[in-house]
């Protein structure tokens, strides 16, 4: 029995596809439209998820793990020391470990002779904060020993109490925009460190340079009037007071409360507050939390609360892919009709191949190959068109929204996003449907009677 070579089968398919170019064009076009519709429709779900959820999970709020204590031997302690910080930094996929310790005195802050009221001074690790993404609205993070960052609302003054009759007149003034804190970048802030020498209160001046301003807090009632300093400036304050975090050591400490509330000397191990472990990505937060929890560290993160949001987008994407698949199935009707007509038109060729001993498998393969090639052409064209449409939609929709709805769209917002996974899924569905559409006609081709085919009577 004669066997057709694969190259001969391909040549036969190409010759037959050229015989009716208009029908082939319409079939490929229908397949391309179905594939493009599937990809573009599903890309909306991927685009919205990328713009909304992925931006959220990339934020420090979601990638951070709050560590508020450690449980050892059945006892829970809220104090974390140097060894705990080193361990947390050694955990895989932890890119930074930050902490915030308040300076335990007011420091009497002034800028250009203006005394600042409210707010405190916070010691942070700016090297770790740089990795974690310390939010700034202006300026930069400190690089020198005497540089600081100030809070966004540091120049706001606390409202003064007013008489009842003056309440209405002062309400409008209280809503006035505060003077921007960024205007203080580059200025010197004077600090006074209070301490006792031989029982006498002393005030030692320090000077710090303002280099940055924090971001505005997302909650409008949260006013950030703090100043943020690094380890070098903290050490200067501690060297003056002789206590940890600049706590004031009064002459008679025994009368000022229990030992736990007394200032700790520099000789004792330092403890850290408001410790956060920052993950490389939100996908690692759960694993990191479980790992450190097994070591006794009590922690919490809001990343797991986004699971429900991701589930909603997953269901939406599956639904959009399903709707798009229906369009591909409709396009498959065209492939089925094309292949059925091809079997009828090529009945004599099929009869000749069977007469010279061609195996039915080879004949079936020829028609499956043709339907697969139609699906491949449609898929390639559909994918290309999809990417073009995706780029056009992302460029045009923000302009249309600004023009007709007078709304501003974020610069990095994407309405359509086509990941590689979506392209692969669409290609598999389109090619699979194309081959399945040609399977029935291909099977019919193997059952063509030789004598009838040669008489062109099918």
List the main descriptive attributes of the protein structure presented here.
alpha+beta, 14 strands, 9-stranded mixed beta sheet, 458 residues, single chain, elongated
Short description:
This protein has helices at residues 6-17, 21-57, 60-63, 82-90, 126-132, 167-174, 231-241, 285-294, 307-345, 347-355, 360-405, 420-446, 450-454, and strands at 64-72, 75-77, 94-98, 100-102, 110-111, 114-115, 121-124, 136-139, 147-150, 188-197, 200-214, 227-229, 275-279, 297-300.
Description:
By secondary structure, this protein is α+β, with helices and mostly antiparallel strands. Helices cover 49% and strands 16% of the residues. It has helices at residues 6-17, 21-57, 60-63, 82-90, 126-132, 167-174, 231-241, 285-294, 307-345, 347-355, 360-405, 420-446, 450-454, and strands spanning 64-72, 75-77, 94-98, 100-102, 110-111, 114-115, 121-124, 136-139, 147-150, 188-197, 200-214, 227-229, 275-279, 297-300. The strands form two sheets. Strands 4, 5, 6, 7, 8, 9, 10, 11 and 12 form a nine-stranded mixed beta sheet that branches. Strands 1, 2, 3, 13 and 14 form a five-stranded antiparallel beta sheet that branches. A hairpin with a 2-residue loop joins strand 10 and strand 11. The radius of gyration is 36 Å and the shape is elongated. Mean pLDDT is 83; it is low at 162-176.
Report the radius of gyration as a whole number of Å: 36 Å
Largest pleated sheet: 9 strands, mixed
Mean pLDDT: 83
Query: Got a strand count?
Result: 14
Helical percentage? 40-55%
Structural class: alpha+beta
Number of DSSP helical runs: 13
Query: What is the terminal-to-terminal distance?
Result: 24 Å
* General form: elongated
Query: Uncertain spans, ≥5 residues at pLDDT below 50?
Result: 162-176
Strand content: 15-25%
**H-E string:** HHHEEHEEEEEHEEHEEEHEHEHHHHH
């Amino acid at each position: 029995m004669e066997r057709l070579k694969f190259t001969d089968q391909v040549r036969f398919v190409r010759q037959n596809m050229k015989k009716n170019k208009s029908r082939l064009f319409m079939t490929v076009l229908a397949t391309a439209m179905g594939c493009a519709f599937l990809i573009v429709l599903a890309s909306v779900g991927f685009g919205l998820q990328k713009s909304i959820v992925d931006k959220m999970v990339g934020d420090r709020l979601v990638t951070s793990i709050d560590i508020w204590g450690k449980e050892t031997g059945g006892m829970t302690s809220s104090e974390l020391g140097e060894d705990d910080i080193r361990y947390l930094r050694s955990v895989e996929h932890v890119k930074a470990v930050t902490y915030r310790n308040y300076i335990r005195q007011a420091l009497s802050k002034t800028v250009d002779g203006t005394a600042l009221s409210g707010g405190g001074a916070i010691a942070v690790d700016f090297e770790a904060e740089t990795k974690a993404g310390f939010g700034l609205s202006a300026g930069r993070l400190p690089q020198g020993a005497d540089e600081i960052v100030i809070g966004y609302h540091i120049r706001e003054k606390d409202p003064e109490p007013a008489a009842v009759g003056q309440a209405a007149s002062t309400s409008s003034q209280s809503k006035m925009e505060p003077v921007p804190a960024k205007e203080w970048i580059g200025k010197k802030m004077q600090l006074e460190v209070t301490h006792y020498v031989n029982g006498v209160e002393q005030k030692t001046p320090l000077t710090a340079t303002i280099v940055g301003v924090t971001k505005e807090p997302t909650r409008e009632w949260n006013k950030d009037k703090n100043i943020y300093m690094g380890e070098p400036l903290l050490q200067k304050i501690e060297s003056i007071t002789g206590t940890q975090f600049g706590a004031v050591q009064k002459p008679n400490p025994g009368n000022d409360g229990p030992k736990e509330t007394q200032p700790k000397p520099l000789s004792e191990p330092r403890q850290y507050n408001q410790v956060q472990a920052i993950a490389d990505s939100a996908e690692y937060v759960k694993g990191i939390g479980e790992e450190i929890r097994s070591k006794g560290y009590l922690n919490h993160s809001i990343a797991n609360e986004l699971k429900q949001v991701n589930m909603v987008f997953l269901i939406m994407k599956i639904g959009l892919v399903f709707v798009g698949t229906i369009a591909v199935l409709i396009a498959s009707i065209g492939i089925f009709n094309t292949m059925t007509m091809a079997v009828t038109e090529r009945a004599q060729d099929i009869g000749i191949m069977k007469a010279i001993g061609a195996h039915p498998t080879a004949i079936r393969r020829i028609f499956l190959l043709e339907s697969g090639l139609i699906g491949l052409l449609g898929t390639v064209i559909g994918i290309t068109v999809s990417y073009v449409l995706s780029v056009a939609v992302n460029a045009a929709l923000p302009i249309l929204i600004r023009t007709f709805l007078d709304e501003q769209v974020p610069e990095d917002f994407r309405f359509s996003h086509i990941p590689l996974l979506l392209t692969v899924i669409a290609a598999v569905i389109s090619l699979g449907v194309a081959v399945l559409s040609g399977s029935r006609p291909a099977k019919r081709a193997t059952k063509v009677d030789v004598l009838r085919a040669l008489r062109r009577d099918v």
